[in-house]
């Protein structure tokens, strides 16, 4: 199983990450589509070959083709949006925030899955990419759609754990090559 492989690959000093992988993915109460869409979009956002290699096949098996593509689309479009909107938010000149972005993001309007699921994946990716403006926007849409805070929190926990696992495994790979 993918989780077992990831946990086995983690060094002893990362025992907490092993436990958290089991908790946030292995024992998640999220419905399968929400869980594996979040896992896949976050795995892509980490940019970690080790994390993607283990989790993508499971996500692909657990998700419908439409959900699989939508989760990948969430990672792709948020990779762009998070950079753009984080920048407009951080710039001292607030004129940029009022300018039309002019970037294509059609998938947000028609993701091919339930809008709330797609928004959850966008929220989790935005957590990895550190865009406060996008986090606020997607959290607001989720709350208006009736998504409980516990579900939103579960997605950000998945994002946090996968980002930490990715950083640890990728760093260990570099250290092993020294």
Automatic annotation (TrEMBL):
Where is each Carboxymuconolactone decarboxylase-like domain found?
99-175
Residues of the active site are 131 (proton donor), 134 (cysteine sulfenic acid (-soh) intermediate)
Give any GO molecular function from the UniProt entry. Answer: disulfide oxidoreductase activity
Q: What is its EC number?
A: 1.11.1.28
Any single biological process term in GO? cell redox homeostasis
Q: Does the keyword Disulfide bond apply?
A: yes
Coiled-coil ranges from the UniProt annotation: none
Highest taxon, organism lineage? Bacteria
Q: Which UniProt keywords apply?
A: Antioxidant, Disulfide bond, Oxidoreductase, Peroxidase, Redox-active center
Please give the positions of the paired cysteines in each disulfide bond. Answer: 131-134
Under catalytic activity, the entry for this protein gives: N(6)-[(R)-dihydrolipoyl]-L-lysyl-[lipoyl-carrier protein] + a hydroperoxide = N(6)-[(R)-lipoyl]-L-lysyl-[lipoyl-carrier protein] + an alcohol + H2O
Main enzyme class: oxidoreductase
For whether the record's keyword set contains Disulfide bond, the answer is yes
Q: Which family does it belong to?
A: Belongs to the AhpD family.
Role this protein plays? Antioxidant protein with alkyl hydroperoxidase activity. Required for the reduction of the AhpC active site cysteine residues and for the regeneration of the AhpC enzyme activity.
Q: How does it assemble?
A: Homotrimer.
What name is this protein filed under?
A: Alkyl hydroperoxide reductase AhpD
Organism in which the protein naturally occurs: Kitasatospora gansuensis
Species lineage: Bacteria, Bacillati, Actinomycetota, Actinomycetes, Kitasatosporales
Its gene name is ahpD
């Amino acid at each position: 199983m993918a989780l077992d492989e990831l946990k086995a690959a983690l060094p002893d000093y990362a025992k907490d990450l092993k436990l958290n992988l089991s908790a946030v993915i292995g024992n998640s109460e999220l419905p399968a589509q929400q869980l594996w869409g979040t896992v896949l979009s976050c795995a892509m956002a980490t940019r970690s070959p080790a994390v993607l290699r283990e989790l993508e096949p499971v996500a692909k098996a657990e998700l419908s083709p439409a959900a699989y593509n939508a989760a990948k689309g969430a990672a792709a479009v948020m990779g762009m949006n998070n950079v753009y909107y984080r920048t407009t938010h951080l710039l001292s000149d607030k004129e940029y925030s009022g300018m039309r972005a002019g970037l294509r993001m059609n998938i947000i309007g028609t993701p091919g899955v339930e809008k709330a699921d797609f928004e959850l994946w966008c929220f989790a990716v935005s957590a990895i990419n550190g865009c406060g403006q996008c986090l606020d926007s997607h959290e607001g849409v989720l709350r208006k759609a009736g998504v409980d805070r516990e579900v939103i929190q579960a997605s950000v926990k998945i994002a946090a754990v996968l980002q930490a696992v990715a950083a640890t495994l990728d760093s260990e790979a570099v250290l092993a090559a020294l």
